[in-house]
């Protein structure tokens, strides 16, 4: 009735698939923001959007080479951090949260607007930005079998490059949080006023952290767009940010590897639950007759929302975090 | 001009017809779950400019110029067809099958049809706006009235948000869902229960108040007792918001559903301004309720207690005010007003339909208004929301219609740069 073999295959492929890479990068950025500096960025998906569209528009519309497109995408993340950070980083935490979630929705509305179609492709999205990435693919066979999983050549290339980017971001995070810079941002998270009393320019450090995490988010958008060869605005909807939060909190905020392990585990669990629900609601005599198969996509969002709230209340440090390092107090 | 009003409302429906945010692409690494559907359903409802359903009209779906499916609308204007696969299709009305005298504004539309989401196609009827250069002042005046109406609706919904922030310090991201659920409850009582919309709204406001109380007693009071910090509470409220929004999607569905009353009304002229009766009523109801709330805050014991708690919680508690009871009352008031705001929003901005995402869309404008006026102040919130409403409507003069919320949200960022405490706020709250 329930094909557990299929559940497991789907789950394992999600452990390493493009979604896990994408949310690992988003969560790595949020880890710098939320985990280390205590900034509440509720619009990380907006950073991914500007990264992906910065790369996509410069490559597809203006014929820029891929490396330049990637740099432009990352620069877009920095610019967005500056625009959102300058007005809000001196204020209470919730102002940044409100402004970032509003900005991510504005960006989605602008990119999908029919008035911008010739620029962004409107709701249809952009195409034709990934040809040079595909041309670099060294895996020319149609499919490869690795540990019993059959992976198409282009996917193997995308996954390999994606995890390389994740590894570089992890390395950078690891180096930074052990540096004096990392100690300052952690001090800001623990007590902003104390850091300021020690003569640190709190605003500048917060700005740098916001920009760095934003660039990680932008890289996430770029990698996903190249891996899936698609770029449509409605994918970048505000709830996606909270998938990344759920992954971060599951893995443990404020730990270097927390977001990566969190994202892999989160996608494993989510896709197994998804596949289970699809099996349980399909067919002649479904196991769960009261759920229609169209609702499965919505149930995923409900589960993530509940999970996020419950984790935050009952186990804010996640699996690997240290409770005393988790930001919980009001500021 | 009448047609412009019609377009503004209809474009609300067009926005809602966007596919629900689809989950990220499934595994490309290996076997994606088998697709066993033999077609994807696309549907819609045809209504003419007066809001009457159009039966027996033929709709053709074409892919790359070849027709792939065809449907005929039923007596209630509904139509449904099924296309073989996901992709881009052009949907065209067969205008020869339309009743005589129907003006078509947009009879052809190209859309991306995707699997697993609701695919709705909207055709627009009505007369084209005549671009007469001399009508500039009248256009501005009419948009101003629309803006005041929209601002009042935002304000009604946002009072609860602002008061809850003032008394508890919580920025409640789930407030938008209180608006949605209020409107959905009113829709159920109105459509399934067969109750006229006005009593249905009052009943829904009672439910909204109870929902607010349940929120406070079930979640937020417990969290405060546990000593949860502001940031933890923010994350909990956004989690709650997402869970509730998609629960509404599951139980209510992704369509725009219309109320049984006040769906279509004729426009009356009041000098240079033209309003439907329901628009005028929305303005009057909003003003009456807002005056009542102001009187409540200024004159009654509970209102004074609310202001005292917002001003200084500890001082209020030590002068004998039962802070928990005051906060519970604020939640109930906020829930009831959010419900009313939801119904008025549906009636005046969404052409009498209810949608699962309406609250979230309003939430961002509420935040813009509340911050513009000053977080935590009741009157500031109202002023800010009025300005945001007017800005949103006036911005349609220069911005395309699908970007009309942009101005309201841009003002949020601008005000934070120049006057972060808002127009009427005090500096002490923001640091």
TrEMBL record, chain A:
Domain of life the protein comes from: Bacteria
Location of the protein in the cell? Cell membrane
Q: What is its main location?
A: membrane
Coiled-coil stretches are none
Gene Ontology CC terms = plasma membrane
Q: Which UniProt keywords apply?
A: Cell membrane, Membrane, Transmembrane, Transmembrane helix
Question: What InterPro entries does this protein's entry cite?
Answer: ABC_transp_permease (IPR001851), LivM-like (IPR043428)
TM stretches of this protein: 12-32, 39-60, 66-86, 156-177, 209-229, 235-253, 260-277, 297-314
- Short name of one Pfam family for this protein? BPD_transp_2
Topology in the lipid bilayer is annotated as: Multi-pass membrane protein
Q: Which protein are we looking at?
A: Amino acid/amide ABC transporter membrane protein 2, HAAT family
Name its species: Pseudonocardia ammonioxydans
From TrEMBL, chain B:
Molecular function via GO = L-isoleucine transmembrane transporter activity; L-leucine transmembrane transporter activity; L-phenylalanine transmembrane transporter activity; L-valine transmembrane transporter activity
Q: Where in the cell is it found?
A: Cell membrane
Q: Which GO terms describe its cellular component?
A: plasma membrane
Q: Which GO terms describe its biological process?
A: D-alanine transmembrane transport; L-alanine transport; L-isoleucine import across plasma membrane
Q: Specify the taxonomic lineage.
A: Bacteria, Bacillati, Actinomycetota, Actinomycetes, Pseudonocardiales
Location, primary (coarse class): membrane
Describe the family membership recorded for this protein in Swiss-Prot or TrEMBL: Belongs to the binding-protein-dependent transport system permease family. LivHM subfamily.
Membrane-spanning intervals of the chain:
147-166, 197-218, 230-252, 280-297, 326-346, 405-424
Task: Return the protein name.
Answer: Branched-chain amino acid transport system permease protein
InterPro entries per record: ABC_transp_permease (IPR001851), BCAA_transport_permease (IPR052157)
């Amino acid at each position: 009735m329930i094909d557990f073999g299929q559940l497991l295959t789907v789950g394992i492929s999600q452990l390493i698939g493009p979604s896990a890479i994408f949310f690992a990068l988003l969560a790595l950025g949020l880890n710098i923001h939320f985990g280390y500096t205590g900034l509440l960025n509720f619009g990380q998906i907006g950073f991914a959007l500007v990264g992906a569209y910065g790369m996509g528009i410069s490559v597809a519309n203006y014929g820029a080479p891929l490396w330049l497109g990637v740099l432009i995408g990352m620069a877009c993340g920095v610019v967005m951090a500056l625009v959102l950070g300058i007005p809000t980083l001196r204020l209470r935490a919730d102002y940044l949260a409100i402004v970032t979630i509003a900005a991510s929705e504005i960006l989605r509305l602008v990119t999908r607007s029919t008035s911008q179609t010739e620029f962004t492709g409107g709701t249809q999205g952009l195409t034709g930005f990934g040809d040079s990435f595909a041309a670099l693919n060294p895996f020319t066979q149609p499919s490869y079998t690795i540990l019993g999983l059959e992976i198409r050549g282009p996917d193997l290339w995308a996954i390999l490059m994606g995890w390389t980017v994740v590894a570089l971001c992890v390395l950078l995070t690891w180096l930074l949080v052990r540096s004096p810079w990392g100690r300052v941002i952690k001090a800001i998270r623990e007590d902003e006023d104390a850091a300021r009393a020690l003569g640190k320019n709190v605003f500048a450090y917060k700005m740098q952290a916001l920009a760095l995490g934003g660039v990680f988010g932008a890289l996430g958008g770029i990698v996903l767009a190249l891996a899936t060869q698609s770029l449509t605005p409605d994918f970048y909807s505000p709830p996606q940010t909270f998938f990344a939060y759920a992954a971060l909190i599951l893995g443990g905020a404020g730990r270097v590897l927390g977001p990566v392990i969190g994202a892999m585990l989160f996608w494993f669990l989510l896709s197994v639950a998804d596949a289970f629900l699809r099996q349980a609601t399909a067919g002649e005599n479904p196991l769960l007759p009261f759920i229609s198969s169209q609702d499965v996509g919505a149930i995923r969002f409900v589960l993530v929302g509940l999970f996020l709230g419950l984790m935050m209340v009952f186990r804010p440090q996640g699996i690997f975090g240290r409770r005393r390092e988790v930001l919980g107090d009001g500021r | 001009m009448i047609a412009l009003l019609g377009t503004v409302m209809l474009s609300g429906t067009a926005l809602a017809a966007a596919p629900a945010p689809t989950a990220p692409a499934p595994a490309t690494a290996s076997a994606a779950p088998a697709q066993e559907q033999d077609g994807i359903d696309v549907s819609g409802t045809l209504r003419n400019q007066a809001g009457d359903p159009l039966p027996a009209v033929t709709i053709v779906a074409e892919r790359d110029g070849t027709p792939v499916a065809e449907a005929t609308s039923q007596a209630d204007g509904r139509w449904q067809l099924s296309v073989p696969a996901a992709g881009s299709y052009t949907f065209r009305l067969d205008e020869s099958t339309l009743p005589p005298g129907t003006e078509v504004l947009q009879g052809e539309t190209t859309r991306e049809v995707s699997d697993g989401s609701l695919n709705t196609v909207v055709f627009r009827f009505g007369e084209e706006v005549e671009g007469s250069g001399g009508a500039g002042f009248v256009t501005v005046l009419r948009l101003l009235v629309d803006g005041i109406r929209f601002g009042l609706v935002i304000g009604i919904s946002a009072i609860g948000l602002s008061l809850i922030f003032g008394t508890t310090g919580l920025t409640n991201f789930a407030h938008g869902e209180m608006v949605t659920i209020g409107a959905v409850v009113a829709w159920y009582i109105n459509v399934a229960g067969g109750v006229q919309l006005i009593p249905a709204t009052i009943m829904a406001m009672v439910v909204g108040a109870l929902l607010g109380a349940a929120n406070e007693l079930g979640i937020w009071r417990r969290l405060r007792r546990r000593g949860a910090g502001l940031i933890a509470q923010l994350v909990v409220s956004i989690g709650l918001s997402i869970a509730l929004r998609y629960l509404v999607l599951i139980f209510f569905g992704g369509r725009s559903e219309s109320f049984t009353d006040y769906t279509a009304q004729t426009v009356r002229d009041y000098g240079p301004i033209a309003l439907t009766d329901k628009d005028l009523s929305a303005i009057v109801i909003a003003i009456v309720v807002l005056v009542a709330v102001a009187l409540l805050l200024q004159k009654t014991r509970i209102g004074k207690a609310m202001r005292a708690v917002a001003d200084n919680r500890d001082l209020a508690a030590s002068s004998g005010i039962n802070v928990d009871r005051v906060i519970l009352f604020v939640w109930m008031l906020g829930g009831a007003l959010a419900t009313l705001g939801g119904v008025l929003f549906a009636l005046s901005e969404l052409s009498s339909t209810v949608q699962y995402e309406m609250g979230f869309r309003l939430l961002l404008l509420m935040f813009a208004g509340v911050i513009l006026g000053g977080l935590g102040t009741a009157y500031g919130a109202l002023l800010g929301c009025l300005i945001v409403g007017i800005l949103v409507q006036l911005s349609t003069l220069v911005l395309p219609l699908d970007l009309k919320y942009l101005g309201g949200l841009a003002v949020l960022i601008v005000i934070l740069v120049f006057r972060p405490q808002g127009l009427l706020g005090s500096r002490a709250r923001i640091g």
